[in-house]
Amino acid sequence: MDIQKLQRMQNASRAGGKNAPRRKQVRKPRSEADDQKVQAALKKINVQHIPGIDEVNMFKEDGNVIHFSKPIVHSAANANTTAVYGRAQNKELTELVPGILPQLGADSLANLKRLAEQYQQLTQSQQQQALNKAKEEDNGDDDVPDLVENFDNADENKNVD
Fold first, then answer.
1. Which strands sit side by side in the sheet containing 88-92, from one edge to the other?
2. Residue 55 clears pLDDT 80, i.e. is over it
3. Among 19, 73, 79, 139, which one has the highest count of C-beta atoms within 10 angstroms of its own C-beta?
4. How far apart are CA 117 and CA 122, in angstroms?
5. Would the keyword Transcription regulation turn up in this protein's UniProt record (predicted)?
6. DSSP-derived 3-state class of residue 19
């Protein structure tokens, strides 16, 4: 090979320099930095770790629940602040009802009754829609032919032969 050709190939493959394309840097999410900022802000208001909490449930207006199992909870009563750390799961209220009844207060029980009524109305409307849909499907079923012959007469004709 020619030396000049090798030099041209080497210059063309060089990363960086004049007329070289810029490469984008891959940036990692800054979750650790954000967590550290949150921790620093919480330390400023003197939060204390609360041991012995097995689960945390946060009720939404739409009837769903944000459920934390075995969370880490920090609280500062004077700043009216509570921080909950852990893996959160969105669950429906009906999934958690037997276990959370002792946790509910008077206000929550009223909300639970209201949600139960809404859920019942919703399920009734869904059942009604399913029945209407089934009726529509049954009305359109023309695959079964109508009876033309009288089978009783056909049976008598066989006995005669």
1. 55-59, 64-69, 88-92
2. yes
3. 73
4. 8
5. yes
6. coil
Distances (CA, A) of 28 to 24, 32, 40: 13, 10, 22
Q: Are strands 55-59 and 48-50 parallel, antiparallel or unpaired?
A: unpaired
CA 159 to chain centre: 68
Over residues 62-110, the pLDDT tens digits come to 778 899 999 999 999 888 999 998 899 998 877 777 777 666 666 666 7
CA distance 103 to 112: 12
Q: How far apart are CA 78 and CA 45, in angstroms?
A: 8
Residue 120 near residue 127 (C-beta atoms within 8 A): no
Name which of 91, 92, 89 is nearest 123 in CA terms: 92
Report the distance separating Cα 65 and Cα 58, nearest Å: 6
Q: What is the CA radius of gyration of the chain?
A: 36
Most confident region among 12-16, 20-24, 51-55, 133-137 by mean pLDDT: 51-55
Taking a C-beta distance cutoff of 8 angstroms, is the pair 95, 88 a contact?
no
